[in-house]
Amino acid sequence: MNFRSTLIIIVVLVGIAIAYFLILPKPEQVKTEKDKPRIYQVYDLPRKKINKLRLTYADESYQTLTVERKDKNVWMISTPFKADTDIEKVNEILDDFLNKRVRQTLEVSEYHQYGLEKPAIIVELWKDVESSPKTFLIGNKGINFSVYTKEKSEEDIFIIESSALDDLTKSPTDIRDKSVIKFEPETITEIQYQKPEQFICKKDGYDWKITQPIATNADTEYIKSILTRLHSMKVSTFELDGKAVDSNLDKYGLKNPRIQFSMTDGSETYGLDIGSTVTSSSLNNEEKGYVYVRSVHQGGVYTVTDDIVKLLNNTLFDFRDKRLLDFQRKDVIKFEIQNNIQKIVGIKLQDKTWEFQDNKNNIFNANPKAVSDLIFGADSLEAASHVNGQSKNLAQYGLENPKIKVIFTLQGEEKLVRIHFGNIATDGTVYVSVNNSDKIVSVNRDLYDKISKGIAWLRDKNLFNFSIDDPSRLAIKYTRDAVDNGDVQFTCQRLGTNWRLTYPVKENAKNAEINSLLYELIDLKVEEYITYNKINQETTTGLNSPHIQINIELNKQKEHVLQIGKQDQVGRYYARLLDQPDHIFLLDNNLIPKLKTKLEWVRTTE
Asked: CA of 405: how far to CAs of 19, 421, 448, 456, in Å?
């Protein structure tokens, strides 16, 4: 390469370097461009201090939109109608505008060429709603994705990002809160229904009370559930707002709504009317049903899923507290059941087990599950319906002389808990009054049917309560009908730890066989107890001449005599203990072969 060529290359490179430094921006210039001030900085308009916003549009298809801050976290649409807003969407509008950078300020003498005499959008922002707003005019688009903007009181204009046009072009629906009612469930203090039935509920501390048309307890948990679910329900579509609503109520079935519901938190009252069902073609959705709803406090008509009908289609009975009693189950130490046939008294023992006695002073171990079901069933007893005009009609409902009385005694309290059961209603429920009240309700008869069985229900299903070492003598007798090879009868006596046959032979017995039989008796469970009055005659059971009889004499000088008779229609065996002849029970037919121990099985080979 010659000197001339080298010189030319050097000159070109120097020229490029000079151009680079003269034409391209310096680092500090780039930084300055990025740090152009934002609108909120230039005009002292931090979003948190803005309390009112109005957007006015040259395009008449968009309504003037005004939103006002009610408190720190609540914005409301005030024009073109009143409605709740989605606070996040309002904040998004404010942030999008206030954070726009003022790219450049221009000194101009005329504004029409920038679209500022008839601006596309007018933005008004109030920090103090009682004073004048800061007003911004948004005009024509400029180059490099910009739009001309002017603060109304200033002569100069400035340029911001053209995305402001899209950010600020909003309809009321764009920023509306889609909650059917915007409220906090915990703050509601009163609920009123006009339809389907008129009544009023008021909050009393943590609980709810019905105050009209009667004064009684309300179902607090039921009301909480309704408020929680209503709080989460969303509008599907916004149908109508403003002055047009009143003239179109009949169209939506809202002139005579099927449900009229309102509630208050003490400062605001919220109301809903529920109208007709939306036809599927209106929403192009056949999978879910919708209804028209009118927000009485805001005036709008919406569509909402028909779940709202199921939620709010309530009557006074739905809101009433259906529990008849409220006591601590663990505090029950005694119960008493009285009817025309028997009286049963149950006592809680120190080990928290139960025993009871009948009117003949027979003492029985109680079935733990049955006692638990009795106490739980009483404490959770709920009304299926309420009867009006009760005090003069106790006899009509069988409660002047109740068929069954149940009385509970609570530990540390002299107050008794009483339940009176009367007649069976035509719908299969049973009439009840509690604690000597003249108020009558009907309840599901499950508990009544169990109590009606008396001892048959309450008695422990374990027939015997002894250990393997307690028996001292055992006598077995089978009749001819029970064993194909003829009658079986033998007795045996315990001598120390061993068993010895005493009849019909005298010899040592097989301990394993005798103990096996005793274990079967210890584990023997009653299938079902039967009250004696349900047996037409003793011969039905076969217990006047039992097929099997087992005598068990204990060391404690107590004797159990088990008699087993005929089978019932499903194959179970009638049985009883001889010292309690009226208390007949049924044994599973699978247990009987295990009790048929033959003489040859217990004999030893000597």
From this structure: 109, 6, 10, 17
Cα dihedral 251→255→259→261 (10° resolution): 120
Topology of domain 471-602, CATH = Immunoglobulin-like (2.60.40)
Task: Check pLDDT > 90 for residue 453.
Answer: no
For residue 317, give every residue at least 6 positions away whose Cβ sits within 8 Å of its Cβ, in sequence order, or none: 385, 386
With CA atoms as reference, report the closest residue to 332 among 225, 418, 205: 418
**DSSP designation for 129:** T
Q: Give 57's strand partners.
A: 121
Q: Where are the domains of the chain?
A: 3-31, 36-175, 185-319, 329-458, 471-602
Partners of 287 in the β-ladder: none
Beta bridge partners of 385: 442
Dist. CA 420–CA 407, nearest whole Å: 9
Residue 385 CA to residue 125 CA, distance in Å, equals 59
- What residues have CB less than 8 Å from 459, skipping those under 6 apart? 364, 365, 366, 367, 370, 526, 529, 583
- Please say whether the beta carbons of 398 and 425 come within 8 A: no
Query: To the nearest whole percent, how much of the chain has pLDDT over 90?
Result: 71
How would you label 115-131 residue by residue, b for 16+ Cβ within 10 Å and e otherwise? bbeebbbbbbbbeeeee
pLDDT in tens, 194-253: 999 999 999 999 999 999 999 999 999 999 999 999 999 999 999 998 888 999 999 999
The closest of 339, 340, 337 to 409, measured between CA atoms, is 337
